[in-house]
Structure formats: structure tokens, C-alpha cells
What does this fold into?
Amino acid sequence: MSRKNALFALAMVLMMATAVAVGPAAQAQTSNPATPTGASGQAATNGSQTPSSQPGSIGASLRAASPDGRGIKLADIIKNGPADQAGLKFGDVIIAVNDASVTKPEELARVIGSFKSGTTITIIYLRKGEKKQSAVTVLERSKVFTEHAVGMDAAAFRVVAGQGDADAQLQLGALYANGKGVPQDYAQAASWYRKAADQGNADAQLQLGALYFRGTGVPQDYAQAAFWYRKAAEQGNVYAQLNLGVLYVLGKGERQNYAQAVSWYRKAAEQGNTDAQKNLVVLYRRGVKGVPKDESQAAYWETKIFDQFRQHAAAWRAMSPRPPLPEAAARERILAENAVQEKNFASAAQHYRSGLASFDTWPEGWFNLALISSELNHYADAADGMKHYLELVPDAPDAKDARTQMIIWEDKAKR
It folds into this structure.
């Protein structure tokens, strides 16, 4: 097998202590020496970066189910937003996302919100009775508004926000956090997030918690971060549930309590959040204070993770044409290849993981990460990664060799 088409590995150094403490414009990661970390020293995920702090959006209002109950009718569509760019139109009825049926607006919003920014999903819909499908790239809700809401500038949001509209207050906070149409000002962002958060807006509560965690625009205060994360988590916000679990692991803002961490991770995991699922795998496989080692639970959540990937891979295989490698992943590829030239395999692996986090249906990335992981003697990771590769390209010319290598790696991992 050529080096170019070398088998990949999905590094199973799972995120456990990476706080999703991010504002709309930036991400901040923390790692704990007591938790598993990637080769770079940062807490890593199984092929994914720290998730965004806002639910994903396609830039369209989902106001009502269709009269026949078959799906959700699209209302307002933001010009140049994800849905608009994918060709969706007012009146289209969405019936499925990545082959998973949806019948209620809140269900569709939850499914779309579970995807990370930059993820390409397949929207299946009806237009005048004809079944169609489109590839739509999900963006963070704040980015949809700040980058695509033509005509909705800060002044317009300020008018509506000043009238007490929580959604407008949230979006105005995002404009200040991103520096879109106004000078970047995290203190102003915090002020508007707080107004919306005080009205019970879970997204604003999440964002405010993120600012307190990072100490951006407000004094760093882990107790306040935990307070606002909890407010949002109790409303079912999946990222807040994940973040609150992380704080319990870190012992920041809350007394360290792994059982509580598992409780909140499970809530997020049951909504389909893969990072929470991966954290559960780590905790159950290791066994920690208050959380007995439980291989059956670890295996259960690993299966959930792969089942979700299987749906994603099937949707990707069905796309024609398939989406190109995004800029973020292309950048990581360049850095990874340079690290390989310098024989810094640990760094190369980290760059491939970062690239795959933004675009997990990248076969070449999996190939190269596999080779690197095997070079680092991470055989269990290599075998698991091969499983993902074969799910993406089961009929690849080297599929037989890939399956053979997977068997070898699985055997080595048991020794």
C-alpha cells in the first residue's frame, strides 16, 4: 500500500476536560493533567474539535408543520444564508435530515442544532410534491445573522433589542462579540447577552457563561460560568449540558464531582452530542471516583458514536457532487504534511485530527492519520479509524488491504 494511501487512525484520545467556553468569535480550550490529552498536550476529541457554543442553523425560520404532518414548512429564509445558498425556498417542506425523518419544528431545530458549524448535512424536502435533496452547510446561529442577514445591521438590531426582544438582544451581543458592523466589544456583548439571559434565553445564557469562563468582557468567574451554564442546561441546551459536565470534571465553579459530570454528559449525549458521548466512553472505560468502570456502558456509547457517523457517511456517499475540502481542513492538511516532512508525527496527527473535526468525511485525511497513528503505536486508534474509513469508502481499491490491516491492528491492540 502506498504511503499516500496509507491507512488512517482515529485518535481515541477523547476530550474530557475541554471546556466549551467560547464566545461567537473565538474558542478557548483548557486541559487537565489528570485527563487524557492528545500529543500536543491539549485535550482532544475523537475526530472533532471543541464544539461551537451556539446551536447550528441553516438560516431559515421553521414556523409550522406542514398541514399533512409530513414535515416542516420553511418560512423566512435569510438571503445568502446556508439554506438560500443550497437552493431551498420559501414553502419547501423538510421531511428528513441525513435520512432521519423529522415532523415537528422543534425536532428539526434540535437536529440541526446538534451539528457543528461547518458540517455539511443532507436536507430532504418536498417542493410542490416533488421529493428533492440539497447539501447544506450548517453555521453557528450568530454567524448566520452577523454574516448573512443582509440589511439587519447593528442599528436595526439595537432598535428591536431596545424594545426588549430577547432574540434581538442575543444577536446584538453576537455582533459586538464578532465585531460585525460595530467595533468588537466584549463588554457590550456581555451586556446584551445578559439582557437576553435574564429573560430566559438559553443561547444567551450559554454565551454569557462562556464569557465568564474565559474572563472576556467580564471578570473571569467560574461560579458565574457554572450558574449560567446550568440555567441553559436546565432548558435542554446541549452545549450548556456538555460545558457543565466539563466544569464538574475540572472542579471549576463546582466542586469536582464525576458522577454529576456523567449525569450532564448523558443528557447531552442523549441529544446526539458526540463530544459528550466520547467523554462518557472515557469515564466509563477508566472508572473514576463516583463512576465505576463499566465496559458495557463504554461500548454502548461507542456504538452510538459510530451509528451517528454511519448516517453521516451514508449521506456523504449519496451526494453528487460531493462537497470540496473546506478551507479550514485544507489548512490543517498543509500543516500536517509539513509536520510529516519534519518527522514530527505527533504534531501531524494533531493537525489531521483538527482537519477531520471540521470535515469528517475526508478519506485522505483518515488514510494519513492512520499511518501516523500506527507509527505512534496507537493500534486501537488505528483499528477504530479504519472502521470509519471503510464506512466512507467501502469499495475503495485498497479496501481489502484496509480490512487486513485493521485485523492486524486489532490484534496488536490486545497485546
Q: What stands out?
A: Residues 1-52 have pLDDT under 50 and may be disordered. Residues 295-318 form the longest helix (24 residues). The domain at 1-51+323-360+362-415 is CATH 1.25.40.10 (Serine Threonine Protein Phosphatase 5, Tetratricopeptide repeat).
